Amino acid sequence: MANIKFLMRRATGEFVHDLVTRDLRGQMNRTSEAVLGEIDEFDLAGLERKRPPAW
């Protein structure tokens, strides 16, 4: 899976680094599991989507 992520970074020119608190580390790790494309990682990890505050 690491090779796919590397190729995606090269293709898109984007790199994302996520920093979470200790209590969210398990859920955050679940979002990086190798899963099929139709599986939503947020749902898999039990996370709720929220929009960031406007700048």
Question: What are the SSEs and their pairings?
Answer:
Elements: H1 2-12, H2 25-30, H3 41-45
Label this structure with key terms.
55 residues, 3 helices, single chain, mainly alpha
Provide an overview of this structure.
- By secondary structure, this protein is mostly helical.
- It has a domain at 16-49.
- The protein has three helices and no strands.
- The longest helix has 11 residues, at 2-12.
Helical content stands at: 40-55%
Total count of helical runs of at least 4 residues = 3
From the alpha carbons, calculate the radius of gyration and give it in angstroms.
13 Å
Proportion of residues in extended strands: under 5%
Task: Estimate the global geometry from the Cα principal axes.
Answer: globular
Count of distinct strands: 0
Helix-strand makeup class: mainly alpha
Low-confidence stretches: none
Q: Roughly how many Å apart are the termini?
A: 34 Å
Mean pLDDT metric: 82
| Biggest sheet architecture | none
- Secondary-structure element pattern, one letter each: HHH
Gist of the model:
With 55 residues, the chain is mainly alpha-helical. The protein has a domain at 16-49. The chain has 3 helices and no strands.
